[in-house]
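A student in our group prepared the protein record below, which I am reviewing. This is what I was given:
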Amino acid sequence: MKRTEHTNRLLDDLPHGDRVRLLAQCENVELIPGETLAKSGEPIDFVYFPTESFISLATEMNEGPSLEVALVGNEGMLGAPLVLGIGESPVHAVVQGAGLAWRMSAARFRRALAEDCALRRGLHLYLYVLMSQLGQSAGCTRFHVVEQRLARWLLMTADRAHSKAFHITHELLAYSLGVRRVGITKAATSLQNRKLIRYTRGDISIRDRGGLEAASCSCYQADKDTYDHAMGR
């Protein structure tokens, strides 16, 4: 399979020799939208370092539908509990955006962690970022209105899709934000009337990125700042 033009930022931060050794133990795989990569409470078989693709992490609620708690793209990885020595996934992970990713078996990943200090340090920093973003997401869901949260989610998706245009249904948006479809329709219509996005039959394109950032809640920039600060960017 051909190498992607995009890379994974966590792997990019490794010293050259460490990165080469790690990638030699990975395979480059194509992820398909809707593909389940991990299930809550079940063993983690593989870790994934997305390059083009992005993955939705959701928590399952006994009394209702699942709620997306994070998106993982080429800034991160799937399988972070292994860094803490935990072999089960706490979330349900489903591919949301198609594309390539580096995949590594959990067993090989554990050995690499034991042998590579730079890898451990980088992933410890990423765990801090992930925990901070999960806390930010919880506050965002509780206190910010749907239109702000939708703007934030669209910006996050565009960053991970490496494109200002992508396809997303009302159903998936409702699932991602944990609101009813009518709420998504109202928020998307408002953003479209303000000429910030174009939305037709699930095809979304960002027309005014600066305007969409202004319409978003502060959580979008806070997440980026946390990542850049922690990862030394």
Remarks:
- The longest strand covers residues 99-105.
- Residues 69 and 135 are 9 Å apart (CA to CA).
- The chain has a mean pLDDT of 93.
- The radius of gyration is 18 Å.
